[in-house]
Amino acid sequence: MTAKPKVWVSRPLFPDVLARLAEYFDVDAEAVERRHTADELKNKLAGVDAALVGLADRIDATVLEGNTRLKMVANLGVGFNNLDLDTLTRHGILASNTPDVLTESVADFAWALMLAAARRVGASERWLRAGHWPGSNQRFDDWLGLDVHGRTLGILGMGRIGQGIARRAAGFDMNVLYHNRSRLPEMLERECKATLVGKDELLRRADFLVLVLPFTPENHHAIGAPELARMKRSAVLVNIARGGIVDDAALAAALREGTLAAAGLDVFEGEPQVHPDLLALDNVVLSPHIASASEETRRAMANLAADNVIAALGFGEAAGNPPTPLNPAVLARWSAHKA
Ligand code: DGY
Q1: What is the per-residue pLDDT across 219-236, written as a single tens digit (0 to 9) for each?
Q2: If you write DSSP's letter for every residue of 295-327 in order, what string do you get?
Q3: Could you confirm whether 23 is annotated as catalytic?
Q4: Using CA atoms, how far apart are residues 140 and 223, in angstroms rounded to an integer?
Q5: How far is CA 234 from CA 59, 102, 118, 151, 264, in A?
Q6: How far is the CA of 254 from the CAs of 74, 295, 296, in angstroms?
Q7: Catalytic: 289?
Q8: Probe ligand 1: pick from 55, 80, 83, 211, max atoms within 8 Å of CB?
């Protein structure tokens, strides 16, 4: 009997998904969530045919150096700025991500942050839990927040998640503006009731600005001090995209000085570290990168990553046709080799 291919899973995963993988592979799954060093990644990847990795695992030339075995890396996330795709492709290693299955859950969460930041949910809950309510003589004009309905929603980055956020805005009777590299097809614009504007106009007009753009070198600090200065003092910024798109120090300064009303952040520069100035502020709602973390969606993401590995390594009904490859040129090269 030939040995099963080896698969490494870099973070604890749902047991039923691991069981699916174990039907085809010899699976080495981490039981504890932790950040791996480049040396650890290099060693683990040298001994396997495929790996399921998380966004904290940086897969680049250093960790792939000398690796002649690895065929496939499945990312547990739609964003893949942790993968050096050019290097993977050069090594003939297929990569995949988890698009679509998380779109609606992430769009829901963008709304959770918008509403929580606008209506001061985090700060008022902390106050209540600290026991301040009894005896506080809470005034009629305490805890005043910002209305969301009827305001202007700005979306920077209008992919599938941005469109999901826009569609939800109809229920809040909002005016929706967006800025994107390319204009949406007319039908989608109509469906989202969204109007394309320049970045500067988006910054100036948005009451709520939600960031949903991919993290690329060009998008580093796409929202820094100059951009924040163009926004309304009453505006709310929401980042569910990636840390590093916002200059967190500049954002903390704007929130502290009152040149921006509030923010909701799910992602941070250098996470899991959070800028200490943000931690000290009450007008920002903070969450630990959980926008896709609903039971159904995280399960669907794990299963999609597993589907990709199973198919890429030639097993299951979709053998040879992984559903969401990032560098399909590698698949073409594999088939050319076989022919
Ligand atoms: C992604 O999939 O890129 C998200 O950030 C994970 O929650």
Answers
A1: 999 999 999 999 999 999
A2: HHHHHHHHHHHHHHHHHHTT-STTTT--SSBS-
A3: no
A4: 36
A5: 41, 31, 10, 11, 14
A6: 38, 35, 37
A7: yes
A8: 55
Q: Residue for token digits 């003589």?
A: 137
Beta strands in 208-316 (DSSP E): 208-211, 236-239, 262-265, 284-286
Q: Which domains does the chain have, with CATH numbers?
A: 6-101+295-338 (3.40.50.720), 103-286 (3.40.50.720)
**Distance in Å, CA 140 to ligand 1 centroid:** 40
- The residue whose CA has the least distance to atom 3 of ligand 1 is 79
**How many C-beta atoms lie closer than 10 Å to residue 61's C-beta?**
12
Q: What angle do CA 159, 106, 319 make, to 5 degrees?
A: 75
In short, whether 245's Cβ falls inside 6 Å of ligand 1 is no
Catalytic residue among 36, 151, 242, 275: 242
- Residue 194 CB less than 6 A away from ligand 1: no
Q: Amino acid identity, residue 258?
A: G
Q: What are phi and psi of 313, to 5 degrees?
A: -85, 10
Query: pLDDT tens digit string along 163-208?
Result: 999 999 999 999 999 999 999 999 999 999 999 999 999 999 999 9
Mutate to test the pocket of ligand 1, among 11, 75, 102 (most ligand atoms within 8 A of CB): 102
Whole-model pTM: value is 0.96
Contact 165, 210 (CB under 8 A): yes
Q: Report d(CA 199, CA 83) in Å as an integer.
A: 28
Tokens of 157: 């980055």
Strand partners, 6: 26
Q: What share of the chain is helix, strand, coil (3-state, %, to 5)?
A: 40, 15, 45
Order the strands of the 236-239 sheet from edge to edge.
194-196, 175-179, 152-156, 208-211, 236-239, 262-265, 284-286
The angle that helices 295-312 and 15-24 make with each other, rounded to 10 degrees, is 10
Give me the pLDDT at residue 2, please: 84
